[in-house]
Amino acid sequence: MLKKIRKAFSNTSNWKLYFITALIVRGLIWGYFEHIAQTNVSAEHRINSYVLNGDYGFFFKPVDKYYTSGTFSYLDNKPYTGRLPGYSAVYFLFRLVLSPSAALFAVIILQFLLSALSVYVLALLAGRIFNSTRCFHITYWLYLIAAFPGFLDFYVLAESFSLSTLIFSLYYVTSYLLHTDNKKALVLSGLFLAITIFLREYTGLLLVLFPAVIGIYNLFILKNGFAKAVVACLLFCLPFIVFDTAWIVRNYMGTKKFIPITTSDNDAYGKSYSAGWGSLDNLVYNWGENATPFVKTTIAHYFRYPKENTKPVFPQRIFNNVTTYNKDSLVSLHNLYGTFLATTDTVEAARIDKRIVDLCTIYQDDYTSHHTFSYWFVKPAKNLGFLVLSNGAVNLPFPAYEATPFTQKIIKLFFVVFYYTLVLLGFIGMLWYFFIKRNGTVTSWLIMLVAFIVPATVVFFNPIQEAKYFVHAFVILLFFASWLISELVTLFTSRAPKQSS
Length: 501
What we know:
By secondary structure, the chain is an all-alpha fold. It has 2 domains: about 15-265 and about 390-495, no CATH class; about 265-370, no CATH class. It is about 70% helix and about 0% strand. It is built from 21 helices and 2 strands. A two-stranded antiparallel sheet has the order 1-2. Helix 6 packs parallel to helix 9, helix 11 (about 205-220) runs antiparallel to helix 20 (about 440-460) and helix 18 (about 370-390) crosses helix 20 (about 440-460). The protein is globular and about 75 Å long.
């Protein structure tokens, strides 16, 4: 029996077997997590009992409003342009034939199915890039049990879909780079990357990276000439051009504005994301502090929720060498934002909001002018830490460690160790593969650069450093960790003494 199972799994082209295995194994693991979520996750953070709420309001409520009022909007009847509509489109299509509750479950089920399929596709990619069946199997089994990002399949978040489509895009661009006459693979890669970006716009710089690599490959490796390189890049970008043109036309028809991506949070969400709040969050971000307001221990949370009357804990370093603000100034700023939220007079609210923006600008300029090194080097390093050091269990439905039952403590500890081990091995694997082994090819360099560009976009341009923004980079690290593990296995097995017959 074991021989038959081993033989079946030795055939890496048997996608049905690997897909069904992923469904079963992930289904059992995530089913267990969903079970404990019933106890540990409050009802306000769950939808229809089992689905965990994330960004339902931002992605799906405009669709619900469309079916009740005929307008895809978030505020009043103003056309919604706050997010690219990739995730909303999936829900919209299910809503054509299903109720809101059934459509929501259909989205989650589809997320799970595509995620399970992406496990196999990522393994195929590893086997192809590293020319190793062992790498295929190591990648498959590691990604299969990875709780981060796997458990995000059951959140109303676009990260699960965007990660799956990015893996599909990498697979097809690899097919093109290995077989350059495969124009179909080129267009499919562009299609999946366009979907990735329309799901999560912070992946948008990949639309620069992929064509750049394709163009360089055609010009300097294949020496195809400039015209052929341009055609290849245009074929790749064609799906995004079509999608974005449709989005621009829709936005212009509704707002008479040219909106190629999204509008500001203030335009999209009104008072709750006013210019004043954006300036407050940016001030915290530029200090190099955690600007995620959802984390109760952060300064951002202190500013965001003035009604809670929490005592601020400001680090002394943000006051060093500055002259325009002190602790009392920041407490007054916190109170001013509270006044802004409380007032119902729109003229007064606008005046206060502008005052908050002006003060934040003065404070931020004062700090950055006196802390140049901290701003350019320490802040990005700290932001990367906020993004990466989430321990891999941050999205799992466990209570605080002290209140966690012993069995769940062991499970949580396993996934924490699993996460950090893969991050470390992935980073070491990258260094070893590219700079010691010097095995880098066009395709492997492209995959490695994805791991840097996406988190770098978040670190340098987004005040909020949430764990979910690290999913794309984590999967690439897992990819190179698999190669490193395969190399270590080969190294130790080759040194093992052979038994005499």
